[in-house]
Amino acid sequence: MDYRIADFLLRTEGPHSDIAACGLRGFAPFEVTTDAAAEPTMLLKMDAPISDETHPVTKVIHAFDFEQEYAYGEFARYATGYRFSMKREGRTFLLVKEDGSNEVLSNLGKYNEVDPSLVRFGIWIMLGLIMAPLGAIAIHSSVIVKDHEAVLCLGESGTGKSTHTRLWHQHIEEARLLNDDSPIVRIIDGKCIIYGSPWSGKTNCYVNKCVPARAFMRLSQAPHNKIYRLPALMAIGAILPSCPPAFAYDTQLQDAICSTVSDIISCTPVYHLECLPDAAAAQLSYSTIYKK
After folding, report:
1. Of 47, 223, 262, 268, which has fewest CB within 10 angstroms of its CB?
2. Considering the entire predicted model, what is its pTM?
């Protein structure tokens, strides 16, 4: 199966290769038919004979529990590449990528059933790993589109990103949601382009479209509404925490991400919004960002 995500071609082979049919409905809008000879950006082989024994960890980069601790994740190095493992109920789901290769080997296909959440997250990690040196980042944000331009709302979980974009949708004419968790940001010909993706959190918003960025906006809760544009160093500090956290612990990946973030702020304004969860906050941010 072929999927085009942020104009990158993801190809899956082997058991459970139709990942949309495996319960990941967010991938269905991204399915494409391509020439078999077309070179994929990432080739995911679902039934590789790999294990902890064939690709032992040489360095743990980042380890964490999944939400509600139903699984354990580990992003690591093995001797000649990267590996990402997810452990649940005594089973290890493993994905590995050799340095310099676009092939991702996984053992996901050896199981009769797959956990959609683990597959979704595993693909997100490995595609992000391949995209980073290509000037693309999946940025944790909620994205609203107005006048064919995107505004990305950034912030820690619970800050109110989704609430703010919902307020735009309700109170700003023709504003619409593009993605509610993990859009993909690319720099193309000196412009910042925002893509919808199969990763949209708990919101059913899987949109296979792209628009140029109008602005990035980091939110914080406050007893008032106030917005201001950030200078370069603060703009970098506003965007970096929303980039894939596991990659921050690897020098090569973090260098690639910092380079892309630097390109982003060179062509796109970044704001900070101190706000209440009300219509006035949406009107203030809209009027500031879209002022003529």
Report:
1. 223
2. 0.94
